[in-house]
Model the fold of this input.
Amino acid sequence: MQANELRFYLALYFATGIGARRLINIREYFRDAARAFRAAPSELERVPAIGATTAAALVAQREAGLEHADQQLQKMAE
Done:
């Protein structure tokens, strides 16, 4: 997995309501972390176990998720 792909998957994972199973569903549906990260709520809702509330949380928390992912990746690099 490329570093940028990991960054986007971490950002998705840090959103409220996303656990391991939903992250796997997102990965299987989109096959691309950046595409999943930038998806519209209506497209996110097509992923199994992702409803309107979870999709809205993903979209609302994108920037905060990226910041958190960047912090975690920086810690790993140290």
User: Anything to note?
Assistant: The CA atoms of residues 30 and 36 lie 6 Å apart. The longest helix spans residues 62-77. The chain has a mean pLDDT of 94. Helices lie at 3-13, 20-30, 33-38, 41-44, 52-60, 62-77.
